[in-house]
Design brief:
mainly alpha, c-terminal domain of poly(a) binding protein, 0% strand, rod-shaped
């Protein structure tokens, strides 16, 4: 008796992956083995870059804080040292947002830190 193979399920599984690879270049979009490998590699890149995104944003916040602090005569390192010494618990995301969108509030934080 011949072996029974569920072609419907295997075709659906392949179509699902090929649908996800639409827009890829050349064989990467329509050749099953190449498309599957490319899609799997893309998942590893996505995982890695979700972690890397946090690193990139922290670097951006530090640059913004440094630029705003230098207008008040401090650099980033000095400012963060004074903030920690004064006991102000603001993270870099909030400080960078203040520096960008509300410079008066950032200047108030710097003035408070300088006097403390």
């Amino acid at each position: 008796m011949p072996r029974s193979v569920n072609h419907v399920a295997s075709r659906e599984r392949r179509k699902k992956i090929l649908k996800l690879t639409r827009g890829y270049f050349g064989c990467r979009r329509n050749v099953w083995t190449v498309a599957k490998n490319t899609w799997e590699k893309g998942l590893t890149y996505a995982y890695r870059d979700r972690k890397d995104k946090k690193h990139n944003f922290r670097a951006l916040w530090i640059q913004r804080i440094n630029a705003a602090a230098r207008q008040d005569g401090l650099n980033y390192s000095q400012l963060m040292g004074l903030i920690h010494k004064a006991g102000i618990e603001m993270n870099r995301k909030v400080l960078a947002d203040l520096a960008l969108n509300n410079p008066e509030a950032f200047k108030a934080v710097v003035a408070k830190v300088k006097n403390a």
